[in-house]
């Protein structure tokens, strides 16, 4: 009964536990499988994200966590699997069936992403405000004054020093570059904000400030986030729920405090004990 | 069965626990640690249950299992929400997360302070999460910090630098600022000075009178003697110390 249910959890199978349905998912992925040549990156992964929460995805290099995030950003199409976002006023369809243009539009309006490497997310020779405005342009905003005001507002919410909004990212520190990426990602209030190792490579003190900004955004704007990190400390600080991945599979998932205090799977226990 | 219930009466039910068991599987040691077995009790609105037992009898483990920081091994914990009954032992994580935000509180002696967040913001957060405007939430937070005896000059400071006792007060103010339906108290008075202890007990009495159900472990149960409706005695059960003593 309960034991069988929890054994199911420990094998990484997505359980169907009793629900009161106090919350409906905003993001649902089912059976995501992807191989690159002989390398199996994802082996039928299920993921569910609920509005306003931070889902942490943790695992070592090669676990498939970043590949899964790229699937959520529609940068790649899996060999198998479905992806749905609950967007008001939108037809509910498997997003992997969208063509390139539709994907670009969906991303521009509804999905934000912050990469570990700012070169992936920013035009380093354009101004910071221009980088944010570019996002708004893709989404069809054309009024110059509005573009600038919204870019300013978004940079401010990301706790970027506004007096530097016309500096180019290449002139900025790593922490500031991440704030520009963040401002760009939240400029249109995305349904989900994807964070791929957003603080990896930053000094610890800068890392704490960026995490604090993210936490504040989550609290004040109820932005739903999926955070990928190999750093258990980051996941522990940020996540409400945690998915543990290894070799393209989810080995365990649960509430963050449960994953850290009472990990069930042997691999999760190793991971948590290695950290503590 | 290792539970003795000393008295019983029945107001509107909040929680009914049946056959709840917890053990820890420690894979790297190939061992099983038995925490408690076959716990049964009921808790109604405005009732206060004191957990008793020696160190290691599983008192804190029981609280954490009800809060789902620990996963139970077997049994049920039927919790009556305003939207129906749900088994805390097997409910979906997301439902547990919602219940924790809305109606189940956990008070521990340890504060998990986030870096660079002011004490008053930490305390105000539960109110902000249910939609109270920032200014109001902050005012309420300051009122509670004052009630627990945290000096005003510390309110805008980061609690990660506070002493254990001061951190504990911030923690209590945060945990008790939003009236809950079920409150799990894990030695909330440990490391508190006398005036903070008094403020805490007064707040608990107030919450109890307003119908909040509570289960608690107290280092000094005499502090809350006047609040206790019932006691549950947990007895230490065997610890599988030998590798060949592992269950299954």
Structure characterization notes:
The complex is a heterodimer of chains A (276) and B (248). Chain A is of the alpha/beta class and 276 residues long. Chain A has one domain: P-loop containing nucleotide triphosphate hydrolases (Rossmann fold, 3-Layer(aba) Sandwich), CATH 3.40.50.300. Chain A contains eleven helices and nine strands. Chain A has helices spanning 2-10, 65-72, 100-110, 118-121, 128-138, 144-157, 174-186, 204-221, 232-238, 256-261, 266-275, and strands at 27-36, 39-49, 54-58, 80-85, 111-114, 192-196, 225-229, 241-246, 249-255. Chain A is globular. Chain A starts with a helix and ends with a helix. Chain B has six helices and ten strands. Chain B has helices at 59-67, 93-102, 119-129, 134-147, 164-176, 194-209, and strands spanning 3-5, 13-26, 31-44, 48-52, 74-81, 84-87, 104-107, 182-186, 213-217, 230-234. In chain B, helix 3 (119-129) runs parallel beside helix 5 (164-176). Chain B is globular and about 50 Å long. The A-B interface holds A 1-3, 5-6, 9, 15, 17-23, 48, 50, 53, 208-209, 211-212, 215, 219-220, 237, 240-241, 253-255, 257-258, 261-262, 264, 266, 269-270, 273 and B 24-28, 64, 68-76, 81, 83-84, 86-87, 89-99, 114-117, 125, 128-129. Chain A: Keywords: ATP-binding, Nucleotide-binding. Chain A: Belongs to the ABC transporter superfamily. Chain A: This is Putative phosphonate transport system ATP-binding protein. Chain A: It comes from Xaviernesmea oryzae.
Count the beta strands of chain A.
Answer: 9
- Average pLDDT of chain A works out at 89
Residue share in β-strands of chain B = 25-35%
Number of helices of chain A: 11
What amount of the residues of chain A lies in strands?
Answer: 15-25%
Provide a count of the helices of chain B.
6
**In total, how many beta strands of chain B?**
10
| Tertiary shape of chain B | globular
- Give a quick account of the main beta sheet of chain B: strands, pairing sense, barrel closure: 6 strands, mixed
Poorly predicted parts of chain A: 1-15
Radius of gyration of chain B: 19 Å
* Tally of individual domains of chain A: 1
User: Helix share of residues of chain A?
Assistant: 40-55%
* Percentage of residues assigned to helices of chain B: 25-40%
CATH class of chain A: Alpha Beta
Radius of gyration of chain A: 19 Å
Structural class of chain B: alpha/beta
First-last Cα distance of chain B? 21 Å
InterPro entries (chain B): AAA+_ATPase, ABC_transporter-like_ATP-bd, ABC_transporter-like_CS, ABC_transpr_LolD-like, P-loop_NTPase
Pfam families (chain B): ABC_tran
Keywords (chain B): ATP-binding, Nucleotide-binding
Protein name (chain B): Alpha-D-ribose 1-methylphosphonate 5-triphosphate synthase subunit PhnL
């Amino acid at each position: 009964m309960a034991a069988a249910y929890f054994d199911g959890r420990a094998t990484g199978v997505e359980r169907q536990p009793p629900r009161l349905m106090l919350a409906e998912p905003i993001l649902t992925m089912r059976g995501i499988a992807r191989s690159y040549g002989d390398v199996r990156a994802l082996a039928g992964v299920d993921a569910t994200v609920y509005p306003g929460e931070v889902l942490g995805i943790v695992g070592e290099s090669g676990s498939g966590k970043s590949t899964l995030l790229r699937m959520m950003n529609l940068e790649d199409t899996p060999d198998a699997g479905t992806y749905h976002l609950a967007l008001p006023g939108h037809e509910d369809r498997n997003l992997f069936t969208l063509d390139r243009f539709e994907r670009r539009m969906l991303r521009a309006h509804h999905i934000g992403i912050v990469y570990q490497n700012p070169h992936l997310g920013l035009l380093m020779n354009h101004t910071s405000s221009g980088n944010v405005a570019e996002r708004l342009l893709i989404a069809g905003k054309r009024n110059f004054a509005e573009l600038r005001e919204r870019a300013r507002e978004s940079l401010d919410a990301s706790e970027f020093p506004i007096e530097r909004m016309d500096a180019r990212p290449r002139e900025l520190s790593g922490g500031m570059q991440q704030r520009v990426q963040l401002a760009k990602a939240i400029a249109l209030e995305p349904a989900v904000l994807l964070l791929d190792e957003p603080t990896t490579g930053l000094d610890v003190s800068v890392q704490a400030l960026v995490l604090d900004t993210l936490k504040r955004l989550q609290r004040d704007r109820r932005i739903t986030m999926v955070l990928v990190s190999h750093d258990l400390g980051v996941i522990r600080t940020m996540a409400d729920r945690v998915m543990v991945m290894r070799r393209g599979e989810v080995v365990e998932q649960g509430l963050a405090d449960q994953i850290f205090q009472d990990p069930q799977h042997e691999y999760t226990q190793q991971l948590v004990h290695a950290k503590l | 069965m290792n539970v003795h219930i000393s008295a019983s009466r029945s107001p509107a039910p909040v929680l009914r626990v049946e056959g709840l068991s917890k053990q820890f599987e420690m894979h790297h040691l190939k061992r099983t640690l038995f925490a408690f077995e076959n716990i049964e009790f009921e808790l109604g609105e405005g009732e206060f249950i004191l957990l008793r037992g020696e160190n290691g009898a599983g008192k804190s483990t029981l609280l954490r299992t009800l809060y789902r920081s620990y996963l139970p091994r077997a049994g049920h914990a039927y919790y009556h929400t305003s939207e129906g009954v749900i088994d805390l032992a097997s409910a979906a994580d997301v439902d547990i997360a919602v219940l924790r935000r809305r109606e189940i509180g956990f008070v521990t002696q340890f504060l998990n302070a986030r870096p660079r967040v002011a004490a008053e913001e930490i305390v105000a957060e539960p109110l902000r999460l249910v939609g109270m405007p920032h200014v109001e939430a902050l005012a309420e937070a300051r009122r509670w910090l004052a009630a627990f005896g945290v000096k005003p000059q510390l309110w805008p400071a980061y609690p990660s630098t506070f002493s254990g006792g001061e951190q504990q007060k911030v923690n209590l103010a945060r945990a008790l600022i939003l009236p809950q339906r079920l409150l799990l108290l894990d030695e909330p008075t440990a490391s508190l000075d006398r005036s903070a202890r008094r403020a805490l007990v007064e707040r608990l009495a107030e919450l109890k009178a307003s119908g909040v159900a509570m289960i608690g472990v107290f280092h000094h149960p005499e502090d809350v003697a006047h609040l206790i409706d019932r006691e549950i005695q947990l007895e230490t059960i065997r610890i599988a110390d030998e590798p060949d003593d592992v269950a299954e």
